[in-house]
């Protein structure tokens, strides 16, 4: 495959992933700063914040359904067509959020409309990740599969970075202007990113792995049934492995925004800046870690990051408690910027290597999205509830992070490292 086409494939997997996560993280941050006041209006501010976070969590529970729908299309019709659908769906929902009337204008219809668009957003991202990842991994030369698989993972942090930059600029506005119209601007601008993403994907062919499945006549009628019947162990492994990648991530990036500002007295700008710096560092490290996994193996890197996450849980909160902006920056950079990078860099490629090409889209999507639903969207909600129950003590939240690491280590223990095998042969030796 020529370099120009390869470059386009990598840009397509990265751009789509970046746009999806720009939209998604935008919601997560605005949920903490705006939606609890404009959409989920309640006399008790904590209840308003919890309702706002619940709407954030809601899309994570719809994601597996989006994953089932779009991975079915992806394993039946192809990766490329599916990616156009998921991107369009997500873009329409996010653009719509920027135009919504508030609770003060239309009462109960405001949160209902917001939640409806949030569910549409969740359906879109449910199918997007698997397609973007397989676009990169199934085109990759065997010796560079870890690097290629890490590229769409950069979309998570690039999208978050774009969202954070957009909101940081908007928070420079006077409070009244930000709360009235400033928060809406990034949602509306996202339409331009979607148009660019669709244009990039237009010139790409179907992946070699899917073409082989088509030629062999092995395209399954119901990929979900075949996956749950023959690959349920691999799905459980993937769900468990996802936990430590997703729960601490949302604590370091979303929960910290309300925790640091409301409980510890940090400014919104300082907190968002800390997250932004950490995001830049992890974006640089992800492809480096992906490349390293091609040399030393994915499982080793994943275990290294997971153990690091458990060790850092208590020091992270202790550093925040010192109420120093410098320590806030350092803690966020270590957790989100350095420790998280090897885990997320290898996760997608590792998932791809344990599933057969004919159900690969369905397999990786189920594992990833169920894991995200159970541990990701609920993480800010769980952390906020633990703080509320234990008199603002961070100890239960730190223990929760350690628990996610232990769970993921248990899940990954049975996986054989397939970094040195050809992709479409790797499924022949089962994960368990």
Question: Could you characterize what this model shows?
Answer:
The chain has 432 residues and is an all-alpha fold. 82% of the residues lie in helices and 0% in strands. It contains 18 helices and no strands. The chain is globular and about 60 Å long. The relative contact order is 0.15. Residues 426-432 have low confidence and may be disordered.
What share of the residues lie within helices?
Answer: over 70%
Oligomeric nature of the chains: single chain
Unreliable residue stretches = 426-432
The 3D shape can be described as globular
What portion of residues belong to β-strands? under 5%
The residue-averaged pLDDT reads: 88
String of helices and strands: HHHHHHHHHHHHHHHHHH
Q: State the total count of DSSP E strands.
A: 0
Termini Cα gap: 34 Å
Query: Biggest sheet, open or closed, and with what strands and sense?
Result: none
Radius of gyration: 21 Å
**Alpha-beta classification:** mainly alpha
Count the DSSP helices.
Answer: 18
Keywords: Cell membrane, Membrane, Transmembrane, Transmembrane helix, Transport
Domain Major facilitator superfamily (MFS) profile: 9-422
Protein name: Metabolite-proton symporter
Transmembrane segments: 21-41, 47-70, 82-102, 108-135, 147-169, 181-200, 235-257, 269-289, 301-319, 325-351, 363-387, 393-415
Question: Which tags fit this structure?
Answer:
about 425 residues; mainly alpha
What's the structural blueprint in terms of helices and strands?
Elements: H1 3-38, H2 45-76, H3 79-97, H4 103-106, H5 109-137, H6 145-170, H7 175-182, H8 184-202, H9 208-216, H10 223-230, H11 232-263, H12 268-296, H13 298-321, H14 325-352, H15 360-376, H16 379-389, H17 395-412, H18 423-426
Helix pairs in contact: 1-2, 1-3, 1-5, 1-6, 1-8, 1-11, 2-3, 2-5, 2-15, 2-16, 3-5, 3-8, 5-6, 5-15, 6-12, 6-14, 11-12, 11-14, 11-15, 11-16, 11-17, 12-13, 12-14, 13-14, 13-17
Membrane topology: Multi-pass membrane protein
InterPro entries: MFS, MFS_dom, MFS_sugar_transport-like, MFS_trans_sf, Sugar_transporter_CS
Subcellular location: Cell membrane
């Amino acid at each position: 495959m020529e370099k120009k086409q390869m470059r386009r494939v990598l840009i397509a997997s990265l751009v789509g992933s970046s746009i999806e996560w720009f939209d998604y993280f935008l919601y997560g941050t605005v949920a903490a700063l705006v939606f609890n006041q404009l959409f989920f209006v309640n006399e008790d501010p904590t209840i308003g914040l919890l309702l706002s976070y619940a709407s954030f969590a809601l899309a994570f529970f719809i994601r597996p359904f989006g994953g089932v729908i779009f991975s079915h299309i992806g394993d039946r019709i192809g990766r490329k067509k599916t990616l156009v659908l998921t991107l369009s769906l997500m873009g329409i929902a996010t653009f719509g959020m920027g135009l919504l009337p508030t609770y003060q204008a239309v009462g109960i219809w405001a949160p209902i409309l917001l939640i409806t668009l949030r569910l549409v957003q969740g359906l879109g991202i449910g199918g997007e990740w698997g397609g973007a990842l397989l676009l990169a991994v199934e085109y990759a030369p065997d010796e560079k599969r870890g690097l290629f698989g890490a590229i769409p993972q950069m979309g998570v942090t690039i999208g978050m970075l774009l969202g954070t930059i957009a909101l940081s600029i908007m928070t420079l506005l006077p409070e009244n202007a930000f709360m009235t119209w400033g928060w809406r601007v990034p949602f509306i601008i996202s339409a331009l990113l979607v148009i660019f993403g669709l244009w990039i994907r237009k010139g790409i062919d179907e992946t070699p792995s899917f073409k082989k499945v088509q030629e062999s006549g092995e395209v399954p009628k119901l990929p979900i049934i075949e996956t749950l019947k023959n690959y349920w162990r691999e799905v459980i492994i993937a769900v468990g492995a996802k936990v430590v990648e997703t729960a601490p991530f949302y604590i370091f990036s979303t929960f910290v925004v309300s925790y640091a500002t409301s409980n510890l007295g940090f400014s919104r700008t300082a907190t968002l800046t800390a997250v932004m710096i950490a995001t830049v560092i992890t974006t640089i490290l992800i492809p480096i870690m992906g490349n390293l996994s091609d040399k030393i193996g994915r499982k080793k890197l994943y275990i290294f990051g997971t153990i690091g996450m458990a060790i850092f849980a208590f020091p992270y909160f202790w550093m925040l408690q010192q109420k120093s902006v410098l320590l806030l920056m350092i803690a966020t950079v270590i957790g989100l910027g350095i420790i998280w990078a090897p885990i997320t860099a290898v996760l997608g490629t590792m998932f791809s290597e344990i599933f057969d090409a004919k159900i690969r889209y369905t397999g990786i999507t189920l594992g990833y999205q169920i894991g995200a639903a159970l541990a990701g969207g609920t993480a800010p909600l769980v952390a906020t509830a633990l703080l509320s129950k234990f008199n603002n003590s961070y100890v239960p939240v730190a223990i929760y992070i350690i628990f996610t690491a232990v769970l993921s280590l248990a899940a990954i223990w049975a996986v054989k490292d397939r970094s040195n095998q050809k992709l479409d042969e790797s499924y022949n030796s089962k994960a368990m």
